[in-house]
Amino acid sequence: MLVNMNEVLLPAKKNHYAVGLFNAVNLELARGIISAAESTQSPVIMGTAEVLLPYGPLEEVSYYLIPMAKKAGVPVVIHLDHGLTRETCLQALELGFTSIMYDCSTDSYDENVRKVKEMADIAHSYGATIEGELGHVGDNEGSAEGDSRLDDPSQYYTEPEKAKDFVDKTGVDALAIAVGNAHGAYKLPPKLDFERIRTIAGLVDVPLVLHGGSGLTDTDFKRAIQEGISKVNIFTDINVAAVKAEFSRFSTMEKGLIDLIPAAVEAVKQESTKKMKLFGSDGKAGYRLESRGLGETDVNLLTKLVAEEVRKYMNRQ
Ligand SMILES: [Zn+2]
What we know:
49% of the residues lie in helices and 14% in strands. It has helices spanning 5-15, 27-40, 58-71, 86-95, 109-125, 160-170, 194-203, 218-227, 236-250, 257-279, 296-316, and strands at residues 2-3, 19-23, 44-49, 76-83, 99-102, 129-134, 174-177, 208-210, 229-234. α2 crosses α10 (257-279) and α6 (160-170) packs parallel to α7. The relative contact order is 0.17.
């Protein structure tokens, strides 16, 4: 079933596991991810990112992602990762994505707040959720996600007090933090600032997101989730697993591309399954928000609308 991010992340935050975001820029990736989610009974977040659009245009990926999510036997969020422009975010919402990330982390703090707050109001009016980023997660060399390498990443770590202020001011549903993580494959073993994760999780109400998950050790993941991470982004690991499987199948190929497709789907399924079990989202497909009539998302939305009206009224006085 197609759901938004609150429906899978709020139960994850409450019960101390994490849900993976796996990017699916083609059908093999999408089929492998959904198949892993269904076989492990795991909620899942699937999507694409603005920098990945050259490999699969947003409109085209929406043609398979959204129907596949609706048909799935587990909750599936369709998410735009790292929306960099207002236009792409709006297009995703129009196409039926249930969640977006608007990444203004390279803007000044005030600009980040202003732009994300405006987009949060728009996303919520679609019943969609939104993720923001504070601090800046850089990229390892050759990352498929981008190429903003940072000379000294620790200068861009998320400041806990600012994180709270950012969430309060913007109304984001999830927050990506920079704590020693980076996109793509790590050249040197990364060192995560677990203390910082714990401090931010203690101050901020919304689920926290760890980008650049490919290449971290199992112990790193477990500790990060234990300290308060509720969503982990994975792309490099499944991207590479698919090609390795195709490459080894290539040597005994008989019919061409149709030999390689099932090999890629199976490899993506295996790699995603491993991650879902590691994050503890397996068996959690049935974890839902407690609701009293209205879903919690609707209540949040209603609260925001009422607050907005009250604010307008007060301003007129
Ligand atoms: Zn990212």
